[in-house]
Amino acid sequence: MLHLNPKLVSLNVVCLLLCFVICYSVSGKSQTGQKLAFEEVLNELNLRTEQKNEVTRILDKEKKDLNALKKELMNRQIKLDTLLSSDSASDQEIVETRNLVDEIENQMNHLKEQNRLAVKRLLTPEQRKQLYQIQFNN
Fold this sequence. Notes:
Layout: H1 6-26, H2 32-44, H3 49-85, H4 91-122, H5 125-137
Helix pairs in contact: 1-3, 1-4, 1-5, 3-4
């Protein structure tokens, strides 16, 4: 009989959820293939309507929040690039701007992690097991 470390299984489930969350969160109207793949996985997990609705709500909010953070990140990165190419920018100004870029990236990672965990909490143990099996059969 195959014995799997529950912590390792849980970590793999979270990693797979991350992949689906990322695919869903970056998918737009022009990237319907990713969204369809995500929906197929949801169908394979036989999620209840309430679960599907809640997952969709979580991921739609994440997409909105990430888009706002991405816009801010882009602005900060442009400023950093400008400072780095400037002869008059101080080291302190460059470091402070770099720290702001890092902070936004950390906020994005934290948001994704919180949403992965929220989605994971919605799944039953059987659904988590199914998700794990889907991960390793594809």
